[in-house]
Specification:
single chain, 5 strands, 58% helix, elongated
Length: 349
């Protein structure tokens, strides 16, 4: 079941006796949790009706005992059980050997009609390293037929969410700035929502949000400065480029990452020249044919570089980028000196 399907079920007023929430994504989980509690326990019912347990601190069998009992104070209850992974037997131990598993299976055959039980497992990811543990978790909670998967946002989903949240908050953000924020936060929807809320409070919606605002308010998103550096070099703006380079050095940013993004910008610009691509739309379509996803505002920035550099200068730029990459791989490179020399070479008139 997807989070959207779960929300539709809750809106329709049809709730299951038990759910398993699993996966690392936090934003959709928070939306689902809030809607469920608001729907089942509106207003004053929440104080007596919401119970929280943590399986790192209490045994599953004790949780089932609580869930199976009838409350004297609440006609409806939501029992939220976090750290669901903690109940899964370790090593070669079998599920049937777990008293908690036996108690859960017995409860699910005759659940308390006044209780909605939610097991929350968010420590495991969907990558190959956690697959065996994820399979074990799903097997242990196999009696819970309503399973909601919280997969991470894709880049497109995260950007759409960010645009929607910015619009609702009346934030004035250009596409490039918004994309920089999303990319620098690794498409993490919960962090994106948090940073946009901070930006809304900081600017009051009265002016355009800049990359400098993001760097100031979102210290975890310092790579936005890298995007600004890439754009400044792409425009041939030497003064701005050196200023941004100084900021990266002062903040202890990983300079090889900046080199990678600069190289990508110039490589795309050279491709546009070689393929005679005259518009951002043509470059985006060309990349799509190669299976490369590039946001439109990104190709617009690339075309700033296309307009600022001739083909011979772009070819020379690729050579300078190669030299810088090789220099950064030396045994004891001075990263700052290497990158400053690169900026000077790329912005030479």
């Amino acid at each position: 079941m997807t989070p959207q399907q779960f929300l539709a079920q809750i809106k329709a007023g049809t709730t299951a006796p038990a759910y398993l929430f699993f996966g690392p994504e936090q934003y959709r989980r928070g939306v689902c949790r809030k809607m469920m509690i608001d729907k089942i326990l509106p207003g004053e019912l929440r104080e007596d009706g919401l119970t929280r347990h943590d399986l790192d601190e209490v045994a599953l069998r004790d949780v089932i005992t609580d869930v199976g009992s009838y409350s004297l104070f609440a006609t409806r209850r939501v029992v939220w059980v976090s750290s669901a992974e903690a109940a899964v037997p370790k090593g070669t131990a079998k599920d049937d050997d777990s008293p908690g598993h036996a108690a859960l299976q017995a409860y699910l055959k005759n659940p308390n009609p006044d209780v909605t039980l939610v097991f929350d497992a968010q420590r495991l990811s969907f990558d190959s390293d956690d697959k065996a543990k994820m399979d074990r978790l799903l097997k242990f909670y196999g009696g819970v037929s309503n399973v909601v998967e919280f997969t991470p946002y894709t880049a497109d989903e995260a950007l759409k969410l960010a645009a929607d949240l910015a619009r609702k908050a009346s934030l004035k953000m250009g596409p490039a700035v918004l994309e920089s924020l999303v990319a620098s936060l690794g498409n993490d929807a919960a962090r994106i929502a948090n940073e946009l809320e901070k930006l809304a409070l900081y600017t009051g919606g009265q002016r355009e949000v800049t990359e400098e605002d993001i760097s100031l308010l979102a210290p975890d998103a310092r790579s936005t400065t890298i995007f600004a550096l890439v754009n400044a070099i792409g425009r041939g703006d030497r003064a701005k480029s050196l200023d941004l380079m100084e900021t990266l050095v002062r903040d202890g940013e990983y300079l090889p990452l900046a080199l990678t993004l600069i190289a990508s910008q110039f490589r795309l610009a050279l491709t546009a020249k070689e393929e005679n691509l005259r518009t951002p739309q043509q470059l985006q379509a060309y990349c799509a044919k190669l299976g490369i996803q590039v946001w439109f505002s990104r190709v617009q920035q690339v075309f700033q570089t296309v307009g600022a550099y001739t083909k011979p200068r772009l070819e020379q730029a690729m050579l300078e980028l190669y030299k810088a990459d090789k220099a950064l791989r030396d045994r004891s490179p001075d990263d700052r000196l290497v990158m400053e020399n690169l900026v000077l070479a790329l912005t030479r008139k």
